[in-house]
Specification:
- This protein is an all-beta fold and about 625 residues long.
- It has a domain at about 390-535: Methylamine Dehydrogenase, Chain H (7 Propeller), CATH 2.130.10.
- The chain is globular.
């Protein structure tokens, strides 16, 4: 049934189905990016004798575990969304069943292969809503570490018994067991903790004792250590240049450490299971001869959620997706969609894509990566796209701003657990980057707007930092940055009590309109340095990026989206009114209005457009 629904969605997109809302016509353009690959984690055997290779399916609205039948390619879909939206981690249990950790708060589940049914084993600890892969102990116990309370939990896959073992980290600033724990043959679980700073904890499953074992000089570093189990059954680790053997009470430095033990082969009879490839084929390898074969499956892949809509460049509107960070385009004349794959260095999200004289400039997460790409030229590593050196202390670059000096600027949010963002200045001609860090103490730089008359930028801030960081400041600011003096020359609070100021857009009358918190907005005169208006938007919250890049039309309206509607700010009287509501405006993340008044927006994985001007 689900497969048919996917086919129907694709068919409707191909037909260009229209949805009318009064004078506005909403055009459904389709789903620009699909990923056909499916990683496979475990293999189980059905009572009828055939084998199922299991992978996870996570998109904007769904959560499934997917079993691919090895002999026919037919897929079995098991819905796990009822437990809440989070990641999925799974392992084959000692009893031959499939064990799953997922949900918000996370539950252990067992897919009983003999009964072909899902069993809820319970929720061992809460809160627990984000996690990486787990680790299987030598006795068949499945261990998981979670965010935001660093709970270490376990499920005995021989019996189905679940346990909460410990809250690992003691520092409240530490929220992650990441990237993955490791279990030695003697029953010690080693938990890497971060990202505010590094810790490494041992947990003895026999006594319940835990201890932080990373040397003190490494606990001062941001990030996480790494650990892995080697073929000798012991756990080894690495933190920067330090490599070591893990012991329950300390780490033992070593010049050379063994590599991680290879994962056990996923056997389906006499075949070793690989993954589903980009053409939907299951990759198999003969366990004896090594000969590879491919089985066509009915797995159709998934459409990637649209994360951003950027500029028009050479007749195409460009944007990016979420998990992974693919770039897409649509030809404005023909409506042709194209998936360009992952061009940027950040693997998760593309925040903003703008057109420049030198190509497309893209910002991505994690790593606050900034890449300059000419899509009509051949790809060449290090050249096209050109990657500007990133700042290891910064993580998210929300928006580009073309400065009055011809350089491009972006504010950034710091890495997880840390406070103090930065302002990046990029000279595209010289391909240089300059960073100004923590220019507003313990606050992140959100958005920017240029002021050509004074060679300045107006910046918005938030008291928030990287994920899991705890703010120390009470109020966010609007600040003026002098490009000539390279410093803040003015700061103010247009709407006192605000913790986050958002998008800033300069109107044709010279005023800068900005978003405060969820639905406040204001008009700021950057020359007189005063707030001339404050009010509330006609929606409870604006979708990312809150306001479109530019004022458009004869009235110079500044458009935004939120709460199932398009709204517009009119600089003539500072008013903000709903322009149109439509059922297509659901699950929106990413929109922009082009010079001709055409609004493009992403609703989950689907790209839409509507003409806002006559």
């Amino acid at each position: 049934m689900r497969s048919n629904a996917v086919r129907l969605g694709v068919a409707l997109a191909a037909l260009g189905i229209m949805a009318n809302a009064g004078a506005y016509t909403f055009e459904k353009l389709g789903e620009p990016c699909w990923i056909r690959e499916l990683g496979l984690t475990a293999v189980t055997q059905d009572p009828d004798g055939y084998y199922l290779a299991w992978g996870r399916y996570e998109d904007a609205t769904s959560r499934y575990i997917v079993g691919v039948r090895v002999d026919t390619g037919e897929c079995t879909w098991v819905d796990v969304k009822a437990f809440g939206v989070s990641h999925i981690s799974m392992e084959k249990g000692a009893d031959g069943n499939l064990y799953v950790y997922t949900g918000n708060p996370a539950h252990f589940l067992r897919y009983d292969v003999t009964k072909r049914e899902l069993v809820d084993l319970g929720c061992p600890a809460t809160p627990a809503n984000y996690f990486g892969p787990g680790a299987m102990g030598p006795d068949g116990t499945f261990y998981m570490g979670s965010y935001p309370a660093t709970h270490l939990v376990a499920c005995d896959t021989r019996t189905g018994e679940i346990r909460h073992l410990a809250k690992i980290a003691e520092d409240p600033l530490q929220c992650y067991i990441w990237p993955v724990p490791a279990v030695s043959n003697d029953g010690i679980v080693y938990c890497p903790v971060g990202l505010h700073h590094r810790e490494l904890w041992s947990y003895d499953t026999r006594t319940g004792e835990k201890k932080q074992i990373l040397p003190e000089d490494h606990t001062q570093l941001q990030g996480c250590p790494q650990v892995w189990k080697a073929e000798d059954g012991q756990v080894y680790g690495k933190s920067d240049s330090l490599t070591f053997l893990c012991r329950p009470d300390a780490v033992v430095p070593m010049q050379e450490v063994p590599k991680a033990a290879p994962a056990p082969a996923k056997l389906a009879g006499d075949k070793i299971v690989g993954s589903v490839d980009s053409r939907g084929r299951l990759v198999l390898r003969d366990a004896q001869t090594g000969e590879e074969s491919r089985m066509q499956t009915d797995y159709e892949g998934k459409a990637l959620k649209i994360y951003s809509v950027g500029d028009e460049y050479k007749g195409r509107v460009w944007g990016g997706t979420l998990f992974p960070s693919n770039s897409y385009s649509i030809d404005t004349a023909t409506g042709e969609l194209k998936d360009w794959g992952q061009v940027v260095r950040g693997g998760c999200q593309i925040y903003d894509t703008i057109a420049t004289d030198f190509g497309l400039l893209m910002g991505s997460y994690t790593g606050a990566y900034m890449d300059l790409w000419e899509p009509d030229a051949p790809l060449e590593k290090g050249v096209n796209p050109y990657g500007f050196p990133n700042n290891p202390r910064q993580e998210r670059p929300p928006q580009w701003c073309l400065g009055p000096d011809g350089c491009v600027y972006s504010g950034t949010t710091p890495v997880k657990g840390r406070l103090g963002g930065a302002l990046a200045k990029l000279d595209l001609r010289e391909k240089t980057i300059e960073w100004f860090e923590n220019i507003v103490h313990n606050q992140s730089i959100q958005f920017a707007a240029p002021v050509a008359e004074t060679n300045e930028l107006v910046l918005s801030t938030t008291i928030a930092g990287g994920s899991s960081a705890r703010p120390t400041e009470k109020e966010a600011l609007i600040v003026i940055w002098s490009i000539d003096e390279k410093k803040i020359v003015h700061s103010c609070q247009p709407m006192p009590g605000t913790g986050t100021y958002g998008r800033l857009v300069r109107a044709r009358n010279g005023l800068i309109y900005g978003i405060a918190q969820r639905n406040g907005y204001f008009a700021f005169d950057p020359i007189k340095r005063e707030t001339v208006f404050t009010g509330e938007l006609p929606v409870t919250a604006a979708y990312f990026p809150q306001l479109a890049d530019r004022p458009v039309g004869p009235d110079g309206l500044i458009y935004g989206m939120g709460e199932g509607a398009v709204f517009a700010i009119n600089p003539a009287d500072h008013s903000a009114e709903i322009v149109v509501r439509n059922e297509a405006i659901e699950g929106v993340h990413g929109f922009n209005v082009m010079e001709d008044g055409t609004l493009y927006f992403g609703a989950e994985a689907t790209l839409w457009r509507v003409r806002l001007l006559e």
